[in-house]
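Revision sheet: structure tokens.
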Amino acid sequence: MNQQQASNNQSRRNFVKNSSLVAGGILAAPLLTGANFFSGADNTIKIALIGCGGRGTGAAVQALSTNQNVQLVAMADAFKDRLTGSYQNILDALEDKKGRVQVKEENKFTGFDAYKKAMALADVVILATPPGFRPIHFA
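Predicted:
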């Protein structure tokens, strides 16, 4: 490879890299300028947790630990004992942010169709079920 070819390859790489950065910046701009862009008039991002095992519980704790105005408003799992345990673990993990857990008893759903009810109440959904269930959730 001669000097000119190396220069062309380098400039193509720079072009692709810079174009990707610009495109990403354009796509992210609404999210960065108004972090609560999708949350509606009250500026609170409402979260539903679908799948209340260890992975779902951890993901919910991480989501509620951010600096954004977020609230967990609904939970769904196939099994009641798993949902109850997850709810308590989330409360225990969020010592100073327990007010972000706003899941009323009527918004704790169990059964294989529970995800539909929880999704209807939220702006953002954390899907932490086994992968085999996800196509149904996306549909």
